[in-house]
Amino acid sequence: MKYYTIVNNSLLTAYNEKALSRFYENVFALPSDYEVGKYIVKDNTLVLNQNFEIEKLKTLKDEKLTLALRMAYDAEENGTVTFKNASFETNTSNISKLTSQYNMLNIGAIDTVLWLSKDDIQVELNQNEILQLLSTISDYTGALWNVKYLSIKEQILNAKTTDELESIEIKY
Fold it and tell me: Does pLDDT of 170 surpass 90?
């Protein structure tokens, strides 16, 4: 059980009633359904917060949006696309290296590039194939952000209850 007292319109809590009673006269047991934010101090009295469910839903939405965003970044950084029967990483580093190789091919310094795929398959790529691969990666990231993430974000923002919000699956 947890106990409380109110000092200067602020709630002080403790698990030990005697700890509060040593310093304060009016010590009470917190309601059994107490949650942070569910009760507020008003005029030095603990009262039920009439906006608790709305505030709780907003907080949970913010947390779920943050999770959805973090998972989308992870999906972009750790994603793969299949090209020429091999898996290629979609991360920024891989895109940068592919772009450098494309530029080398573009100036005629080399004719083809040997690339080790994520699944350890050596793939020979010419300039046009690197461009197609970069386009495939771009399609992946475009769909990730413009379709999947935005759809999940919309579902989260439109949730009317905590149960509805909790039922939204974040999967990329």
Answer: yes
- For the cut 90, the answer to whether the pLDDT of residue 73 exceeds it is yes
The reply to whether 158 falls in a domain is: yes
Same domain membership, residue 17 and residue 77: no
Distance CA 154, CA 148 (A): 10
The Cα–Cα gap between 39 and 63 comes to 21
| CA distances (Å), origin 88, targets 37, 57, 73, 136, 139 | 47, 39, 17, 10, 13
Contact (Cβ atoms closer than 8 angstroms) between residue 12 and residue 20 = yes
pLDDT higher than 90, residue 109:
no
Q: Are residues 41 and 107 in the same domain?
A: no
Alpha helices by DSSP H, listed for 34-121, are: 52-78, 92-106
Helix (H, G, I), strand (E, B), or coil: what is residue 32?
A: coil
Q: Encode pLDDT of 24-54 as tens digits.
A: 999 999 999 999 999 999 999 999 999 999 9
- The predicted model scores a pTM of 0.77
- Domain hosting 22: range is 3-50
Does 123 score more than 90 pLDDT? yes
Inter-residue contact 37 to 55 (CB < 8 Å): yes
Are 72 and 23 part of one and the same domain?
A: no
Domain count, the chain: 2
First to last CA, the chain: 42
